[in-house]
Design brief:
The chain has 322 residues and is of the alpha/beta class. It is built from 13 helices and ten strands. The radius of gyration is 19 Å and the shape is globular.
Length: 322
């Protein structure tokens, strides 16, 4: 299968490398120091499931350099989605399928603004991985799962073909019969994990082990469930308790990519996570005080370390739009 991976970070770098190792024709689009390092030494993935190395010729600097892929995996930060979608239009119009494994519940709406609606599959990824240094991606733990599917709930030949390739690559993968619900179920957990680990500045073990922060984690997730149900998504009313039990099974040291970005002084996906829950709640008349508080607490860091950005007076909403 000819696969393009837009973004060679934790998600794109890891899953793309697994597919390449299984014999698929995978091309990565990267930029900056990460691109330069991959061009010089290739992409290295360090994982408890086995280390991988992708050769330097598998990376290009621009989407315009891609040559008619069968499927495009989008794995960039959420603020880049609009720009990426515009650049992907010629490929999608030429028949390429596009599946985003980004965070959030608004990503595919953005993609469909620029791409043929039928070209977009829904997708979610489950993994803890990040760029340790330019050219090197580190996978934490053994969780590595992709779930994807068509929005019309059919099991299409292209979804089946991608499933076959993912399974052949040793990836835990599944086709979802209701991908919108699946995306929201991931969103419930993701907002809880990202919001609380970032606000508390500690991994999940600390968050779930303290009565106060554990209650915060549950309430943050319960608010996401309430917003999703108000939007018509068939989430179980008690799904937050289900996800809290799931959090109890995670490695104590596990954290979120937003917490990692916060500690590194990087820009945050805040406006698409707790900020998005708060904004959607306001639109739907659903109370979201915990998510609003987290969005407000982290607002000064939305564009990165305030000291490094000059302490600019920027609201979370303004930051999310940039």
């Amino acid at each position: 299968m000819r696969i393009a991976v837009i973004g060679a970070g934790g998600v794109g770098g890891y899953f793309g490398a697994r597919l390449a190792a299984a014999g698929d024709d995978v091309t990565f689009v990267a930029r900056g120091r990460h691109l330069a390092a991959i061009r010089e030494k290739g992409l290295t993935v360090r994982s408890p499931l086995g280390d991988l190395r992708v050769p330097s010729e598998a990376v290009v600097p621009s989407i315009s350099d891609l040559d008619a892929p069968d499927l495009v995996m989008v794995a960039v930060k959420l603020w880049d989605t609009e720009d990426v979608a515009r650049q992907l239009a010629p490929l999608a119009e030429g028949g390429a399928a596009v599946v985003s494994f980004q965070n959030g519940v608004q990503k595919d709406t953005v993609l469909r603004r620029h791409l043929p609606a039928g070209s977009v599959l829904g997708g979610v990824g489950y993994i803890s991985a990040f760029i340790e240094e330019p050219g090197v991606v580190v996978h934490n733990g053994t969780l590595q799962r992709l779930v994807f599917g068509e929005y019309d709930r059919t099991e299409s030949p292209r979804a089946r073909a991608f499933l076959d390739r993912a399974v052949a690559a040793g990836i835990d993968a599944e086709i979802s019969a209701d991908i919108e619900r699946t995306i929201w179920e991931k969103f419930v957990f993701l907002v809880g994990l990202s919001g609380t680990t970032s606000a508390v500045r500690q991994p999940i073990g600390v968050v779930r082990g303290d009565p106060g922060s554990r209650a915060l984690l549950r309430e943050v997730m319960h608010e996401v469930v309430a917003v999703g149900r108000a939007k018509g998504v068939a989430l179980d009313p008690g799904f937050a308790d289900d996800r809290l039990a799931f959090c109890d099974t995670l490695p104590a040291a596990m954290t979120s990519s937003m917490h990692n970005d916060l500690l590194r002084g990087n820009r945050l996906e805040l406006g698409w996570l707790s900020g998005a829950v708060a904004d959607l709640g306001a639109e739907l008349d659903v109370a979201t005080p915990r998510n609003r508080a987290i969005a407000d607490i982290l607002s000064p860091y939305a564009l990165g370390d305030p000291a490094a950005t000059g302490g600019a007076d920027v609201s979370a909403a303004e930051a999310a739009s940039r």
